[in-house]
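User: Hey, my collaborator sent me this sequence without any context and asked if I could get a structure. I don't really work with proteins. Can you help?
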Amino acid sequence: MNLLTRVVRSLRLRATNPSIYGVIRAVRAQKLTYLSRQALIDLYDAVQRLEQQNLHGLIVETGVALGGSAIVLARSKTPARPLYLYDVFATIPPPSEDDGPDAHARYAEIAGGRSPGIRGNRYYGYEDGLLEKVQRNFARFGIDPAQAHMRIWPGLFEDTLYIAEPVALAHIDCDWYQSVMLCLERITPHLIPGGVLVIDDYRDWAGCKRAVDEYFTGRGDEFRFVMRARLHIERRPTTL
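Assistant: No problem. I've predicted the 3D structure and written it out in structure-token form, which is a compact way to encode the shape of the chain:
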């Protein structure tokens, strides 16, 4: 996406929905997300498409960090649509042998206490009481999780991520091969026609790319792959 397109999209959102435009600017200014403005606009657009097309189902986020993208999702959806959030709310688990040298070098930096945070802040994984901090961030943006039909599951995905309802959108932001693969295996079977998976780290970490490529090999007739600011994978509508 070139600079002119990014500017036009930002200006269009500012004109059509100044409230969400302000939220996106604020979560970035307050250093609550690693995502770019365009990636956050993409999440907003994906939710709006669900609402406009009356596509029912959960919104799921795996990998919450400081809550910036969850805030955008919560403010983009209708209050009645559930939003489920999953995170360890602590230092990220280590990569495995399925990940590349990039992931292991990154984890060594994190484990050694040398990781910088978002644009110079302290790395969020080092924070004590991270879940409580995320909850305070929601409150600062006027989000009441109960009224917004939000639920939070702290812990490892293998212990917490059990989906039993239709999923309309999943934002998968969990870096390593095993975490991404587990999310795909547990979420994708519940993805509705027209629903979308947003893969945050596809272009950033080799293990994430490998998990996605392996899981979706030979499934191009069932899914459509679009590279926006992040990779979007849409389940194609069923045809009669």
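In plain terms: DSSP finds nine helices and seven strands in the chain. You can pass these tokens on to your collaborator as they are.
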